[in-house]
Amino acid sequence: MTDTRVISTWTEFTRNSAIYLLFTFVTIKVFKFLFCNSRTSEMSSFSMATHPEALRRERILNSRLYFDVPLSKVSIIYSSAYDISFMGIEKLHPFDSTKWGRVCKFLVSDGFLEEKSIVEPLEASKTDLLVVHSENYLNSLKSSATVARIAEVPPVAFFPNFLVQQKVLYPFRKQVGGTILAAKLATERGWAINIGGGFHHCTAERGGGFCAFADISLCIHFAFLHLRISRVMIIDLDAHQGNGHETDLGDDNRVYILDMYNPGIYPLDYSARRFIDQKVEVASGTTTEEYLRKLDEALEVASRNFQPELVIYNAGTDILDGDPLGLLKISPDGVTSRDEKVFRFAREKNIPLVMLTSGGYMKLSARVIADSIENLSRQGLIQTRPE
After folding, report:
1. What pLDDT score was predicted for residue 20?
2. How many CB atoms within 10 Å of residue 337?
3. What are the residue numbers of the active site?
4. What does the DSSP assignment read for 347-361?
């Protein structure tokens, strides 16, 4: 009887000890797991905070701005939200803030485009914008006075910022989404046109010249990571110097900048000019023939100097004769020839091309852009009807 009791007691002690040891072992493992996870999370947060490129990568990969576009759509990007209407005060600036919508209306009414075939982009979120812009800069846009300076419309400063965000900055954010998406479409189909964008005066830290967001810089950073593009050429043929993307990307050897601009007008950014790889200055009063000759020479030099995997073409129409800000004398047919030359340059080398409409300060601009796109379609350089 005593032996049985001893054995039973010993068995119970052994079982309790085993349970205790097992509990201790499991507890140690759980705490170790939680500690490691906590350390990993802390290290990850530290890594993100101390390595901006890692944070930029995370933001790009988590963005919704790239999405698959069905073949029933063509590579023309536009949203009715692009157009700016703000109780008429937008008319205080010479820029035609309904230009983008009128371009599409011309293309549709002329039978070159169907509304249902147009791609509508998503709005660039704050996280998307932080890929290039700083938190401080984006916070500065919460001041209506800052936006008024950028838009060059002083009365905007007196409106509540929520209205300014909705009526001015929201259309710009939609256009940024269009520029970023255009690079994906171009690599898939050979070309894409954002009927908007081209805000080439905005840098990561400062807006100006009617440009609140650096869509060209953003587009290129998205393409570097998402599309695995390693060489980009910017062909900026707006009449004004593209000081925004030059400041942001001019020291990046993956980017080649050809800027053909009037050196005697805004922005007169001599600091940014040193970042231009190929500078072509066209003085006030330059005529169509001289302009196109210089462009032919410039494209020839560019083709020898750099072999891009993507071309971003900033196709401002402020080069038109009569434009109050560009001060050049290029005919509407000259603009059509200019755009065709750039598209042929990319087509001959099988390089995807993104076209942005950028500046243009006459009502005539919308008609000229539409005519140029129609010519590209007739020449077989783009396809404005779904396959």
Report:
1. 52
2. 18
3. 201
4. HHTT--EEEE-----
- Look up residue 119 and give its two tokens: 């791609």
The Cα 116–Cα 118 span in angstroms is 6
Alpha-carbon gap, residue 231 to 312, rounded angstroms: 11
pLDDT digits (tens, 9 = 90+) for 91-148: 655 667 889 999 999 999 999 999 999 999 999 999 999 999 999 999 999 999 999 9
Confidence check: pLDDT of 256 > 50: yes
Find the mean pLDDT for residues 24-38: 51
Chain centre distance of CA 317: 19
Q: Residue range 181-187: average pLDDT?
A: 98
Residues 2-11: b if buried by 16+ CB within 10 A, e if exposed: eeeeeeeeee
Using only C-alpha atoms, the chain has a radius of gyration, in whole angstroms, of: 28
Q: Which two tokens stand for residue 129?
A: 């914008």
- Greatest Cα pair distance in the chain: 119
For the beta sheet containing 191-194, the strands, ordered from the edge strand earlier in sequence to the opposite edge, are 76-77, 191-194, 353-356, 310-314, 232-236, 255-261, 278-281
Q: Are 134 and 140 in contact (CB under 8 A)?
A: no
Give the integer Cα–Cα distance in Å for 60 and 128: 7
How far, in Å, CA of 275 to CA of 270, rounded? 10
Tokens representing 23?
Answer: 């509990």
Which residues touch 264 (CB under 8 Å, ≥6 apart)?
283, 284, 327
